[in-house]
Amino acid sequence: MTIGEKYIPTQDKVVWYSDDGTMLYGWQNIDGKVHYFDKITGKMSMGQKNIDGHWYLFDSKGVMQQGFQNIGYQNKTVYYNKDGWMLYGWQNIDGKVYYFDKVTGKMTVGQKNIGGHWYLFDSKGAMQRGFQNIGYQNKTVYYNKDGWMLYGWQNIDGKVYYFDKVTGKMATGQKNIGGHWYLFNSKGVMQRGFQYISYQNKTVYYNKNGWMLYGHQLINGKKYYFNTITGAKE
């Protein structure tokens, strides 16, 4: 009497016989590992298989897989939950947020527009937040707590920033926005007060709104004059 795993070459299938010699079918827990055997033929499942509307993955020994798995020939990484189901869409896994294609289950990496918002996922698929440098696009952008790339004027941790309304690129240096000149430091923070622009060899003044001022100005009880074209203090 045959017990355990058996390969039947004439039918090109691996089956399993229980201790009483009967062939097993359907879901089976064998030595703490989960297997699936065809309900008609008893053939042990290997590779990807759709069972009752869910995609599963079984290794070369027929063991059901869980967690992150790379499907090399489809060039995708997917995720199977504790029940072995492939997951889709937004998922929170071990405290990190991931997005899996709603059709293929492929884990997203890099930049992706989802529902009209741009997101960034690292090389391991985790959604990013906060300031991020996109090297190949030569820009620093910002993603809020929901992972959305932000645009335009933003107050972040009590500091004011400006992000391009099309690309999301964080402004640094001098920038004319809405007809006013602003100054942003190397970290993108909008500047106020007296500022020295070294490469233009001039001192200028930005008010509480960040606007460069021109002409006669009364600042802290003192009178100043700023060139009406360049804004340079004279």
From TrEMBL:
It holds the Pfam family Choline_bind_3. The keyword Repeat applies. InterPro entries: Cell_wall/Cho-bd_repeat. Cell wall-binding repeats lie at residues 171-190. PROSITE patterns: CW. It comes from the Bacteria. This is Choline binding protein A. It comes from Ligilactobacillus salivarius NIAS840. The lineage of its organism: Bacteria, Bacillati, Bacillota, Bacilli, Lactobacillales.
